[in-house]
Amino acid sequence: MIAISKPSTGPEEMRAVEKVFETGWLGLGSTVYDFEETLKKYLGAKNVIAVNTGTSAIHIALAGLGVGPGDEVILPSITFAACVQSILALGAVPVFAESHEENLLLDIDDVKKRITPKTKAVMPVHFCGNPCDLDALKALATKHGFKIVEDAAHAFGSEYKGAKIGTHGDAVCFSFDPIKNITTGEGGAVALADDKIAEDIRRLRLLGIDKDTWHRYKNARTYIYEVVSPGFRYHMPNFCAAVGLEQMKKLPKFIARRREIAKRYDAAFKSVPGVTILDVDYATVAPHIYMVRVPAEDRDAFMESLKAKGVGTGLHYIANHIQPFFKKYVRGPLPRAERLWQELVTLPLHCELSDMDVETVISAVTAFRGAKTAA
Ligand SMILES: Cc1ncc(COP(=O)(O)O)c(C=O)c1O
What we know:
Elements: H1 11-23, H2 30-43, E1 47-51, H3 54-64, E2 72-76, H4 81-89, E3 93-97, H5 108-114, E4 119-122, H6 134-144, E5 147-151, E6 159-160, E7 163-164, E8 171-175, E9 188-192, H7 195-204, H8 213-220, H9 238-269, E10 276-277, E11 290-293, H10 296-308, H11 335-340, E12 344-347, H12 355-374
Helix pairs in contact: 1-9, 2-9, 3-4, 3-7, 9-12
This protein binds pyridoxal-5'-phosphate (PLP).
Pyridoxal-5'-phosphate is lined by residues 53-55, 79-80, 82-83, 125, 151, 153-154, 175, 177, 188.
């Protein structure tokens, strides 16, 4: 079966992890700080805080920007459940909004209709790596005084208006889980410009403690620490950062290969009846997942037919507003999200795909549509 996603790791990552184990310092320490510096330089970001998952990045980014009980956070219904849970974990209220059908990005006009005096933040997701309209969102944020927390889990390496994603919003959250554009095994990071909020988020990742163990033991050699704020145990450990540092060396090749495959799919599918490709400009996008839309009534048969040909498919994502635990937060109808999620299919995209795998995916997709047309 051709998997939809797969990490690309090799002996370099294994050796880097081994080296960390040889030091005996596995937790938060110098390798994490090196990784943060590397990310800062790559993104052009002022501050980067590495954490243990993309979900915790979102959680502490929201907390650091002051989102708390009763505050409202607007986000697309079609996104990962992690975003919704992070909002709820702070006692805040998720407000679901529509996405554009041509690219699955947050519909800013729909956001406008959902703003209230309680709106504290808006969380767009750069779906498939494709940046949302940040200029329009920033204009709205200035007018209404809310924060922008970008969910850039899909968009590590993508650019918006000549600058890397990671330099635009009030806080930008990345995921480095096993299938992302780079992986640290599991991991994430928050990138942001504001030094003071960055300090707060740094403490939020480590139980509200003013100095981490590495700096106390290695530099100051003091056992004294103070707990000065709320906090969680969300830091990235050294052995994960070691994997990340190796992945960063491979990133240009990863992005080039992902773009090559996505563009090959686009070229093959754009004229296939009943298959709609997303509107993505791969010149500036580092693609994470590749999705097409098919008519809702065909979707399950389409996925089954690909499976029968050895091609794995996925679904990103079931609309959150219909999830049993989230539906009580629905405010106002979401007809587009309701229909759209039923049309989505994710096809294999990762750097372990051979050219032959890519052609197998393409013929499986075209064969299904061919059979449909003949029927
Ligand atoms: C859109 C989106 N947001 C957030 C996350 C959460 O990241 P993590 O899995 O690292 O917690 C993911 C991960 O799949 C994601 O795809």
